[in-house]
Each structure stands twice: as structure tokens, then as C-alpha cells.
Amino acid sequence: MTGELYRRYADARAGKSPLAADCAKAWAVGGGICALGEGLRRIFLSLLGDPEDAGLMVSVVFVALTALFTGLGVFDKLARHAGGGTLVPITGFANSVASAALDSKSEGWITGVGVKIFTVAGPVILYGTAAGMIWGVIYWITLRI
Prior knowledge:
By secondary structure, the chain is mostly helical. It is 84% helix and 0% strand. It has helices at residues 3-13, 19-48, 51-72, 74-82, 89-103, 109-116, 118-144. The longest helix has 30 residues, at 19-48. The radius of gyration is 20 Å and the shape is extended.
């Protein structure tokens, strides 16, 4: 089967997505997550007094809640309906890390969960650190000139 024939075959059998409704759901859920984050930030700011600490606590709460909801199967159901709206960076990242761990729990705690939990986080940490070092050197060089 040629590429063109396959494309026509797939297009004929693929269901049409209600684009406007999908975008509205993603916008509403993503906006809701962000609004919740802003509400939590204001609560933590009133308790802690430091904007950086308040932001950090919001991130910690979102990672913990996302991991919990992923483990309970709630996050996947929400993502099925909200699509990209659940991929607000920290919740999407926490979900991908928790999902990798859950998928490999049958292989054991060490060789399964312990190894596979970083299949997503590892590259992010590696290349994030490398990019930070490169930009730090560039910044240092530009200060010297």
C-alpha cells in the first residue's frame, strides 16, 4: 500500500473531531487548573509571606495532586475529555512521570518502578541542566566583554 492510499484509507475511517468543543474543553480545564493555582498561590502567600515560597508550594501541591489523581485513574479520565488543557506544564509532567511508574509496577519496585519512573524525567533533567550550563557560560562571557 502506498503512502497516498494509506492516507486516504485512514482519512476515510478516522472520526471527525469536534474542534471547537475540544478547544473549549481544553481552555476551560487548563484555565481552571491555572485559576486553582492562582488561588493556592494567594493562600500560600498570605501564610508564608514570600512570593517565591508561595509559588514553590503551589508546584509541590500540583505535583502531589497530579500523581495521586494519576494513581487513582482520575487524571486520565479528565485528560480524555479535556485533552491539552491538562498539559499545563507541571501537571502534564507529573502525570507522565507517575504514569511511567504505574505502567512498570509489575516488574518490581527496583527494576520496574525505580528504573522507569525517570524515563521522562531523566531527559528533561539532563537537557535542562545542559541548557542551563550553556546559557550560563554565554551569560558569563557576555559580562566579560
